[in-house]
Design goal:
Elements lengths: L2 H7 L2 E4 L3 E7 L3 H6 L13 E8 L5 E9 L4 E6 L3 H9 L8 E4 L5 E6 L2 H5 L8 E4 L2 E4 L1 E2 L7 E6 L1 H13 L3 E2 L2 H10 L34 H9 L7 E8 L9 E5 L2 E12 L4 E9 L8 E4 L4 E5 L8
Parallel strand pairs: 1-12
Antiparallel strand pairs: 1-7, 2-5, 2-6, 3-4, 4-5, 7-11, 8-9, 10-11, 13-16, 13-18, 14-15, 14-17, 15-16, 17-18
Length: about 325
């Protein structure tokens, strides 16, 4: 079974080397983080995980992240290239709170288990449950933010290697980075530093799952509320799918135009095995985001705006 088929129909696994982990400890950590991040962390007090974003006061993204609460500390799953910088930035925001923040990327490694076999591999484990070990903890969280069904485990490097070996011997298929990207784009899931940047407002990227509209104040909330209530959710640009009229996937990134006008920017592109054609993610100006709109790529091929996801997450 190919890695693509395993992730959709069986069991696939991969080391998530593109992700880093920041550890927050101290009695005030969840309340402190709740005042910074876009989602409501109070339900995590007894353990669990949720998707969120960290914004500037202007509502632009500093990063997206998964918050994992183990009961004794809190882990922030962030882009690996940003882990050290984000950790230092968070540390500089601590005043009198009982909070300590460190970059734990060398101590905690993340392994993803994907496909319908992920849930049955460890029958006793379910998403957002926690199993303590002698050298840390294994935390299973919903993996749909990666565009796949399954779970993510966070554990020591030695335990990660042991899990990968057990998965390989148990019928799991290693999932390479390129195939993981194909699955992510088919699911219409953007990734920070690729499809989103520090100029992105979460609503532009469709990150509704990262936002709470009922919690108290957080940094950047005023902008989100203004867009939601005064602009009725309308943003100047939005993440869309593009069905490419070509035989091969176009290069990314590149500009997108319409009748000679700049319409936006293509950020990720792959050949979709499920659809048998190239597909892409792009951020386009609002007037070009209606499904069915035809645009042109800088390299020449035409493309059609397509509703996301291209392929639903099973």
């Amino acid at each position: 079974m190919s890695a693509y088929e395993a992730a959709r129909k069986g069991l696939a696994f991969r080391r998530r080397h593109e992700r880093g982990v920041i550890r927050a400890t101290g009695g005030d950590r969840l309340e402190w983080l709740n005042g910074l991040l876009t989602n409501d962390l109070k339900p995590l007090e007894r353990g669990g995980a949720c998707y969120a974003a960290w914004l500037t006061p202007q509502g632009r993204m500093i990063t997206d992240l998964v918050v994992v609460e183990t009961g004794s500390d809190t882990w922030l799953d962030v882009p690996a290239p940003l882990a050290s910088t984000l950790s230092a930035r968070l540390d500089g925001m601590i005043f009198t709170e009982d909070v300590r923040v460190t970059d734990a990327s060398r101590e905690l490694t993340s392994v993803g288990l994907y496909g319908p076999g992920a849930g049955s591999y460890f029958a006793s484990q379910v998403p957002a449950s926690i199993a303590r070990t002698d050298d840390g903890a294994i935390v299973w969280t919903d993996a749909t933010a990666s565009g796949l069904t399954g779970a993510h485990a966070y554990l020591s490097p030695a335990r990660a290697a042991g899990l990968e070996e057990a998965l390989a011997h148990g019928g799991g298929t290693p999932l390479d980075d390129d195939t993981a990207t194909v699955l992510r784009i088919e699911a219409g899931v953007p990734t920070f530093l690729v499809d989103m940047s520090d100029d992105t407002i979460p609503l532009e990227a469709g990150l509704d799952a990262a936002l709470s509209h009922t919690k108290g104040c957080y940094v950047g909330q005023e902008i989100i509320v203004r867009i939601r209530d005064r602009a009725h959710g309308r943003v100047a640009r939005r993440l869309v799918g593009l069905s490419i009229e070509a035989d091969v996937a176009p290069r990314a990134p590149q500009l997108v135009t319409s009748d000679g006008r700049q319409a936006g920017r293509l950020t990720s592109a792959v050949m979709s095995p499920a659809l048998g054609r190239p597909i892409a993610l792009a951020t386009l100006l609002r007037e070009f985001t209606e499904p069915g709109t035809r645009v042109m790529l800088e390299d020449g091929p035409a493309a059609v705006v397509t509703r996301l996801p291209f392929v639903p997450i099973a």
